[in-house]
Specification:
This protein is an alpha+beta fold and 739 residues long. It contains 16 helices and 30 strands.
Length: 739
């Protein structure tokens, strides 16, 4: 898209005025600059603006109609004309990057003959005019005719804060002032509480050494710390023996003073003095004991702020451990079509002010906002360095509410929809241009909000060794496997990291709202949903479908549904039995043939959101209402009781399936456990007979006999269950011993 760029720098020699401003007028646009600024020590007739305007431009129409650009200076107090300059748009130069920026030039301010003779018009103005596109480096800071609310609608690039895991190991505490009036044979319950910002954790009960009176814990607590590491870690030793906990002492430790490490090397512990009430952490309070801590900032971990299945980056915090990039991901956000009205303006007229947010790795990008358009066109391009191909790019579309002054500050931007593109599904150096539906799940059901059109390319050498070797490397950094974190602990740390990223981006200008960040990071992906449970169940069924299909195919073979196929299987089986060295190569050749066959059905474009896979087409309204319910629930007691009963019915089915699985395993154990003496005797006798037969008869003959017996014709087959299956079902399990 072409724009007419006008850069107003400053003026000199203007007539006396109080506050000068500049008007820019074309046949389609009229804009007004901000008030001028006079630098200290500079003459008052030399104001400065340093402002850029980007006006939508159609070069063909302008050249045909002889359109002009008028730039004039005015006095804000009296609205008197101070002079102007006129340009023929057909003569304005076109700038294509990487051309250097156009240097501003001085132009003489002109007016009518009467104005110049009277001295009301004089002076010069420094400006530059050119035609460019949104790729121009001046575009992000320019006032755009399609997005006049500059504070909230510029294209911006954001960076997530650098996050660290702070490991706090509480070892020992000494010289604590324990209350002397404890009941007999009562050990004090002393715990340590650590707090970093909004995060807090508490140790278990400490073990007391009766000889020295010290307490021992040897317990780890992990927090998320974000640069610039301005917070302080607060530790409080609490006596929770009585109902009312009593603080025995506290210590304040600046996070910036804590040692950083990038591997598993040993970090020595240090003693920290505990202060009583009235101490601010600087040594002003009374001495209340001391505590031994081992503190370190872990740079060898990757701090997860996204859901693991849609993560866009797996690099550790420490930059020294980063590997070189393997390629570049290029994204072109072209536009959207058919967006639904998101707000009402000007007496109830529907309107949408859409902008896009894309996130990959630590880099966030935000397009400009196209005001009052259901078919916005952005045509903006962004790039990211790719360090791991098995990552996901997320692109979301939102409706801008914060750009309006009459809307309260706490009104969040409304989500329109998002798409995800996995980088590993993109072929190297191929441009994919496609439209994806924007889908949002609302309490009323699934709703299509429109479509977004994007172009994406993964630029890298096709057979680069680093790209191929990445598939054989661990997904997470080394420290995740040497000292792994628990699942529940990772979920808690991920929630803290998401909150810190949202707070960081909310302080930017223009701000990226917390609701936008949480939606892009999938912060609510671990909430309970009956719909997601059904979707996961059908995913498991789909994974096992190949095994079910193979079993059906074998059943058709052994039932002689197609005699020709069954005879061919007999021949193939004989060849494999007689030449067992061909079994493994044949299996791998079969896998290769399957892969080649499915090449015809490979996806031609990266897949978007799948409605059918998400079970969002025919979701029950009550289940959807439960999915959007808060924790704790805000629904009526009778609704909660009905949902609890439904959950119990579902749990009974799961309980029954788990019991059946356990029973089958216990029957296998019962073969040799002598719980059923007769069954164990029979099993051992049969095993002895099989052993003798296998010693006497060649293995190939046994394999041929078993295979032909399994594939025998139905006329030689009994419809009743086999003796082996009946014997197994009669084995005892532990189900009869359950209370």
């Amino acid at each position: 898209m072409q724009y007419l760029f006008v850069r107003i720098v400053k003026a000199r020699g203007l007539p006396p005025n109080e506050s000068a401003y500049v008007k820019v007028r074309t046949s389609n646009h009229f804009v007004r600059s901000k008030p001028a600024v006079n630098r200290p020590g500079e003459p008052t007739d030399s104001p400065e603006w340093n402002q850029v305007f980007a006006l939508g431009h159609n070069r063909t129409d302008s050249a045909a109609s002889g359109a002009t650009l008028e730039i004039s200076a005015w006095d804000a107090s009296s609205e008197s004309f101070l002079g102007g300059v006129c340009f023929d748009l057909s003569e304005v130069p076109v700038r294509d990057p990487p051309d250097s920026p156009l240097a501003p030039q001085w132009y003489r301010l002109e007016g009518s003959a009467a104005d110049q003779n009277s001295g009301r018009v004089s002076g010069d103005i420094q400006l530059s005019v050119w035609i460019g596109t949104q790729v121009d480096e001046a575009f992000p800071e320019a006032w755009s005719s399609e997005a006049p609310h500059v504070a909230h609608t510029r294209s911006k690039v954001y960076q997530s804060p650098k996050l660290w895991y702070l490991r706090v190991t509480v070892l020992e505490a000494q010289d604590l002032h324990i209350a002397p009036n404890l009941p007999p044979l009562t050990a004090p319950e002393v715990r340590v509480k650590a707090q970093l910002g909004f995060q807090s954790a508490r140790t278990r009960r400490g073990s007391m050494n009766n000889h020295s009176g010290s307490f021992h814990w040897h317990e780890d607590m992990i927090f998320v710390a974000g640069e610039p590491l301005e917070d302080c870690l607060m530790l409080m030793v609490e006596d929770r023996t009585s109902k009312e906990p009593m603080v025995l002492g506290h210590a304040m430790i600046p996070v910036s003073s804590i040692e950083q490490r990038i591997d598993e090397r040993f970090v020595p512990s240090k003693w920290h003095a505990l202060e009583g009430e009235g101490g601010g952490g600087g040594g002003g309070g009374p001495y209340c004991g001391r505590i031994s801590l081992r503190l370190c900032l872990e740079g060898g971990y990757h701090v997860l702020e996204e859901a693991a299945h849609v993560c866009s980056d797996f690099r550790p915090t420490a930059k020294q451990l980063w590997k070189p990039p393997i390629g570049v991901l290029e994204l072109g956000i072209l536009g959207a079509r058919g967006l639904l009205p998101m707000k009402a303006k000007n007496g109830g007229k529907g309107s949408t002010d859409a902008y896009c947010v894309a996130k990959y790795g630590k880099k966030w990008v935000r397009t400009r906002t196209i005001t009052d358009s259901f078919d916005p066109r952005w045509h903006e391009q962004y790039t990211w360095q790719v360090y791991d191909p098995c990552t996901v790019l997320t692109v979301g579309v939102f409706d801008n509410w914060r750009m309006f002054s009459d809307v309260s500050d706490d009104r969040p931007d409304t989500r329109i929809g998002k798409i995800r593109i996995r980088v590993s599904t993109l072929e190297s150096n191929k441009v994919y241009t496609n439209s994806y539906p924007l889908l949002v799940l609302l309490p009323s059901g699934l709703k299509k909000m429109g479509e977004i059109e994007v172009a994406v390319r993964f630029a890298c050498p096709s057979l680069l060794p680093d790209v191929c070797s990445a598939y054989g490397q661990p997904l997470l950094p080394r420290m995740h496997y040497i000292r792994p974190l628990g699942v529940a602990q990772q979920d808690a740390l991920r929630g803290a990291a998401t909150k810190m990223v949202a707070a960081w981006l909310a302080r930017a200008e223009p701000p990226l709202g917390p609701e936008v960040v949480r939606y892009m990071l999938d912060a609510d992906s671990h909430s309970w949903s009956m719909r997601k449970s059904k979707a996961n169940w059908y995913r498991i069924v789909g994974v096992l479908a190949w095994a079910v299909g193979l079993a059906k195919w074998l059943d058709n073979i052994r039932r002689w549904r197609n005699p020709v196929t069954t005879v061919l299987v007999h021949i193939l089986y004989l060849v494999l039995v007689w030449y067992p060295d061909l079994v493994v190569p044949t299996a791998f050749l079969y896998v290769v043939m399957i892969g080649v066959w499915y090449y015809r059905f490979r996806p031609k474009i990266p897949a978007g959101m799948d409605i059918r896979l998400s079970q969002a087409e025919t979701v029950d309204p009550d289940e959807l209402d439960e999915e959007f319910d808060t924790i704790p629930s805000s629904r009526r007691p009778e609704v909660i009781r009905a949902r609890y009963d439904r959950l119990r019915i579902l749990a009974v089915r799961v309980q029954t399936i788990l019991g059946d699985f356990a029973a089958q395993g216990e029957r296998i154990q019962a073969l040799v456990s002598w719980r059923d003496p007769r069954a164990t005797k029979l099993f051992i006798t049969i095993c002895l007979v099989i052993t003798i037969v296998l010693y006497v008869v060649p293995a190939k003959m046994v394999a041929v006999a078993l295979g032909f017996y399994y594939l025998r014709h139905p006329m030689f087959r009994d419809t009743m269950p086999t003796a082996t299956l009946s014997f197994f079902r009669r084995l005892p399990s532990l189900s009869d011993r359950l209370i």
